[in-house]
Design goal:
Layout: E1 3-6, E2 16-22, E3 29-30, E4 35-41, E5 44-49, E6 54-59, E7 66-68, E8 72-77, H1 89-95, H2 101-107, H3 132-140, H4 159-168, H5 210-226, E9 229-237, H6 239-254, H7 261-275, E10 281-283, E11 288-290, E12 296-298, E13 300-302, E14 305-307, E15 310-311, H8 319-334, E16 348-351, E17 371-375, E18 379-384, E19 390-403, H9 409-424
Parallel strand pairs: 12-16, 16-17
Antiparallel strand pairs: 1-8, 2-4, 2-7, 3-6, 4-5, 6-8, 9-19, 10-11, 12-15, 13-14, 17-19, 18-19
Helix pairs in contact: 7-8, 7-9
Amino acid sequence: MATQVMMPQLGESVIEGTVGRWLKQIGDPIDEFEGLLEVESDKVDTEIPAPAGGTVLEIYIPEGETVSVGTVLALIGKPGETVGGAPSAAPAAVSQPAPEPSVVAASAPAAMPTGNGHGQNGGSEAMPRVSPVVANIAAEHNIDVNAIVGTGMGGRVTKKDILAYIEAGPTAPAPARTPAPAMPQAAPSDHVHKAPAAPGKPGELITLSKMRRRIAEHMVESKLHTSPHVTTIFEADLSAISAHRAANKADFASRGVNLTFTAYFVAAIAHALRAHPMVNSQWTDEGILLKPEVNIGMAVAIDDGLIVPVIKHADELSLAGIARTVNDLAERARKSQLVPDEVQGGTFTITNHGVSGSLFATPIINQPQVGILGVGAIQKRVIVLENDAIAVRPMVYIGLTFDHRVLDGASADWFVAEIVKTLEGWE
């Protein structure tokens, strides 16, 4: 009997997906858990494996079409097996059962463990996420999957990768894994920001990538068609958090956490969002919807453009928990290892444009949020203190771009002032 391949739910908040590219065509043979297609969902491309082996009998949804979770995408069966007419896509999302958990897990890009909500990873060894068939082959042949270069989505090790590795034959058998005492992982090093390479030669027409098209559409919709943008800029003295960071960075590193300035900004924003809930809201035609959770999106520059992974429940995390989450999301974003649910559900966004030396910026709101905070470069500047003394302090410009339908100048200023107060009074 033919096996239906359905649009999987790639996250709690993901209700639909777009067929990006079929990796197999009608009549092609396919093994169980071998990549069948790529699904696009908000800047994240996810490779979907086949739930069964056989032959691709039918493909119902063409590339570029968006359908709801549960819609039948294709059929896999025996060669020459007859199938009925195309199933209706509309009721499929309701009547068809959800994919098996193992299939959904195998379809996700390789993701490193992130630990619990407070940044504790339990000391477990990081392992790439692989399909059950790859895991079984690795266990049978006593192979360390970390030693294999994966060609799947996000560097995932596929069945073809591990079989090719076995056929090539390693110079020495992989040693059996022996339990090792739990040791804290080394803190990730600071990401080095550098200018991107030239995309082409002068006079050449650069083809738009899928991500660049989505970014362009989103920016035009936000700036020109949705909300009136206004920006207010404050200046903050970062002496307190600079001293705190210098005193605690080594301790955090011993626990495998790179304590960056971004963690302090996220913590201060989370506190301010709780104090000023109108900023943590969404405009609707019926009224202003106050969001119950504080989920802060963090803009991360990648080779193809920009992606915004979300720090869920940021107000409930300690500084260490925030720092660990920031490290993990940023690192996996640059390696294209995020899953769709990790870029969904944000209620506010921060963008650190200062990493490239920028002092001021007026970022565009990430709809349907109410505001986005831009952080400029941290510079030592000469300032005049309240007692008229002159001092050199680490200073930064913080700009809030906000939706004037929801916030007025005064309410926006109070919100940024709360962030400045938290940063300057850090204990």
